[in-house]
Amino acid sequence: MEPDQWLAQYGEKIEQAKRNAAQAETQLGGVGGSATSPDGLVTVTVNASGALTDLILRPQLRGEDPERISGAIMTAVAQAQRAAAGKVVEIMTEFVGDSPALEFVKAKMPNGYSGDGTDAVEPEPELQRRDTRPDDDYFTNPPDVMA
Asked: What structural domains and CATH numbers belong to the chain?
């Protein structure tokens, strides 16, 4: 390969890396996460780095135990951080693939990231948990209620 040809190819690789970095920066700049407490009284939003950018406390919280409120806030913040981190991992996977660089990014997520296999499992809605068998089947083979 001619030195000029090699230099041109190398220059193109550098330019592509710069374009990819700019695109990743643009995409990561818009990343954030949001979470609401199960009772709907606390909502938080975080940016890509997990820093709190918005906190909404509903008026129904007046008179509540401060420890309960702070616990709800911290739980929601951790959930929002996991959501934002999951988006960061998705974007970084697109740019660096499954690589040591991606593993480094994942390791720096203090609360993990959504999709890491440790997400809390949402309970099934009550309608899906109900035993809908006919009465004859139910009483012939009742469910185990004693463990």
From this structure: 31-114 (3.30.1310.10)
